[in-house]
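Thread amino acids onto this structure.
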């Protein structure tokens, strides 16, 4: 009898694991409506160092859109930490918008099309303005908002890790998108690259922007390790990033473990470090206490101009 109970328990654990996995890779449907616009920013502070100026701003709604003031503009569209103004919705997930001269690129989409839609509307961004989507990895808190973009912009390229593309490609095609598997570092447009996949698990890719202040590195959850990803960027460009932002996957790590990781990033020459999403509070505490000149606090609604 004891053996039977153990077998039943084992089967239930397997079924539960499969269910969780399917939830993570699932996509949710939504509808798209008209968008609003925004202008003007408030609560501005400037962080300066020898070769880099990073301006961090929060926005307020207005009637026109202005996105000037820096070579590269990043907007944290979705993050766990809330928007202090209360205008944007936060959720466990990640989505960062990058402004380029050729249109917007969206790095990850958060967990929900409804949240992504709401936040883009508040920011004054029409999904049709987004020319490409880069998905760091297949988990639902990074892919869930995809239908919001795909329904508004048919045939948009969606760059996904090549070795896990079979999981995401059918859903991307279902909503009208064009999956682009990435195995090695790939140029999207001038100055913007998908940094080739690394294994965590799962397979994960990052986004690299070449700015006049230096490389900017966007990471999803850093399942392969944040230090390893930064080293991969340095191997490709020959220069450490002036900014690394995204999920560092350090939630639950001890203070000493986070201290060692922070020290390695600094030793590699990283300029500003903005841990969000799954990074956890400890790495923020370590950076703020030991390396305040390198720590960049970001959250839902942060606008970063470099």
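Threaded sequence (306 positions):
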């Amino acid at each position: 009898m004891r053996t039977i109970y153990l077998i039943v328990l084992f089967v239930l654990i397997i079924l539960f694991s499969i269910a969780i996995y399917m939830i993570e890779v699932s996509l949710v449907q939504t509808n798209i409506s008209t968008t609003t616009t925004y202008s003007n920013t408030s609560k501005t502070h400037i962080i300066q160092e020898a070769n880099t100026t990073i301006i961090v701003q929060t926005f307020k709604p207005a009637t026109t859109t202005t996105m000037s003031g820096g070579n590269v503009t990043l907007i944290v569209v979705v993050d766990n930490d809330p928007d202090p103004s209360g205008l944007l919705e936060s959720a466990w997930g990640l989505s960062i918008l990058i402004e380029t001269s050729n249109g917007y690129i969206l790095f990850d989409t958060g967990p929900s099309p409804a949240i992504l839609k709401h936040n883009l509307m508040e920011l004054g961004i029409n999904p049709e303005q987004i020319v490409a989507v880069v998905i760091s990895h297949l988990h639902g808190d990074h892919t869930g908002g995809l239908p919001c973009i795909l329904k508004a912009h048919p045939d948009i390229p969606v760059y996904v890790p090549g070795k896990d593309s079979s999981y995401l490609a059918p859903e991307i095609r279902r909503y009208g998108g064009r999956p682009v598997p990435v195995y090695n570092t790939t140029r999207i447009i001038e100055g913007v690259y998908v940094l080739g996949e690394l294994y965590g698990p799962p397979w994960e890719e990052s986004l690299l922007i070449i700015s006049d202040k230096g490389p900017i590195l966007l990471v999803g959850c850093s399942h392969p390790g944040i230090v390893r990803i930064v080293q991969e960027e340095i191997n490709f460009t020959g220069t450490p990033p002036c900014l690394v932002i995204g999920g560092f996957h350090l939630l639950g790590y001890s203070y000493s473990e986070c201290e060692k990781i922070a020290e390695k990033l600094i030793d590699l020459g990283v300029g500003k470090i903005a841990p969000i999403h799954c990074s956890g509070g400890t790495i923020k505490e370590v950076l703020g206490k030991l390396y305040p000149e390198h720590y960049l606090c970001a959250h839902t609604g942060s606008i970063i101009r470099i």
